Amino acid sequence: MKRFIFIGLFLSAALAWGQHADQSRSTAPNILLILSDDHSVPFLGIYGNKDLKTPNLDGLARRGVLFQRAYTAAPQCVPSRASILTGRNVIDIRMSRFSAPLPRQTLTIPEFLAPQNYYSGICGRPYHLDGSEKKPEETVAAFEKYHLVTFPDRVDYLNTGADDKVLGQFKEFLNQVPGEKPFFMWMNFSDPHRPFTADDFEPDPQSLHIPQSMPDTKEVRKDLAQHYGEIMRMDRHVGEVLRELENRNIAQNTIIIFMGDNGAALLRGKGTLYDVGLHVPLIVAGPGLKKGISTDAPISGIDIAPTILALAGVDKPAEMTGQSFLPALRGEAYDGHDYVFAARVPHSSGLPQNTAYFDLSRTVFDKKYKMIYNALWQLPYSPVDLSGHPLWKDLEARKKDGKLEEKFGRILFSNPRSMFELYDLEKDPYEMYNLSGQPDYAETEHRLKAKLHEWMIVSQDYLPLPIPPK
After folding, report:
1. Helix, strand or coil for residue 131?
2. Neighbour tally for 137: CB within 10 Å
């Protein structure tokens, strides 16, 4: 008799646990964070770009929330991704060099979600936070000696590869997710990072509408068409992922966040603190969120982690300086940041061969004004991933021959640059006319310098402060 009573109690407990697991599955959403690489606003169809056909991402935005003012905490992949994963700024977490690994004691989204029973993974292009890929032997030895590679310990699944491998990796990950657990996946695409190779997707260069921030030349048109081809190829890959969620009947319980990791590798883009370097697409869609709405609340890359934690029902840890924008996802009033900050740090882990590799600058901006502090103002501008490109060589020749329009010669080839740049973002959204030093804007310039000064002190920034001692 006791045996039957025990079996009965066991079955009752199992049934109760099963009901609890079902409830857990129904209340804890899966979360899929997708990053494109080197991707700015307005380079998606949903942002009004008529030259781009991105039906999958446009459709995702129509089913969710589209952010008009999302910015990364840095214009380069390593520091930006570190800020996205930690909810903290670049200087604060010591990720201002490409050779640096994320410190083991600095926790990331997967680790904060693990106590909530989340199964986590990373797939796609290299994620950059265990040091750069091309390490010399001395760096490898140091990493091994001090156990600096940490991400295999932070997640349950880790597999990187080319964009055409992402879907297979995602399927493999989903097959491994325990049935009772929700998942978090950080998915990375290489597109539209240079070199541009999506020939089959490129639009006709002559049909393009050239942004006002770029000179209209044959090389610019050709390069922009190649860039658009990469974006459209990436959109196709995202569509495959979305269909996989549908095929497995888990789309209805999966929140999808799509974001550019930093700005496009175009003129005054990646590696700069101008709009093209920091302003990225951000789309969030999923269960319990508003559909088909747009917000102009200023969002920073440091806000992604606390928002994901809020979606999973996890309190924001004290060390996170980002803020959750969950109210915006629910269609509630949300103003975003009063001020957004970003840092430009050395690019790559190699020697500073030119200013594209080594430049140091900071920025602060609100909805109306932006100030950039160029600590190494003596160095001329040099575009990241573009300095030896035919496009740049053509512009250099045009400048030398006096054939480049004055405004482009001024913003691309000023030498030396200004230590401080101030822009009226409402009157001058392309940041072409520096107002720094003008008496009419002295109060605004000082206000932004003071905000940046404070941020740099609190962050223990190693650069000289923008307001000198008396």
Report:
1. strand
2. 7
Report domain extents, the chain.
Answer: 28-333, 343-379+416-458
Nearest-5° angle of CA 71, CA 215, CA 369? 35
CA distances from 201 to 23, 194, 225, 322 (A): 44, 15, 9, 37
Q: Is the pLDDT of residue 15 over 80?
A: no
pLDDT at 21: 36
8-state DSSP, 206: G
CATH class of the domain comprising 343-379+416-458: alpha beta
Q: How far is CA 466 from CA 63, 448, 450, 452, 462, in A?
A: 43, 10, 8, 8, 12
Q: Which residues contact 323 (CB under 8 A, 6 or more apart)?
A: 303, 306, 316, 337
pLDDT digits (tens, 9 = 90+) for 428-453: 999 999 999 999 999 999 999 999 99
CATH superfamily of 28-333: Alkaline Phosphatase, subunit A (3.40.720.10)
pLDDT digits (tens, 9 = 90+) for 388-415: 899 999 999 999 999 999 999 999 999 9
Return the amino acid letter for 260.
G
Rg (CA), the chain: 23
Burial (CB < 10 A; 0-12, 13-18, 19+), residue 185, is buried
DSSP 167-180: HHHHHHHHHHS-TT
Task: Give me the chain's average pLDDT, please.
Answer: 93
Which spans in 148-217 are helix H?
151-154, 166-176
Its pTM stands at 0.93
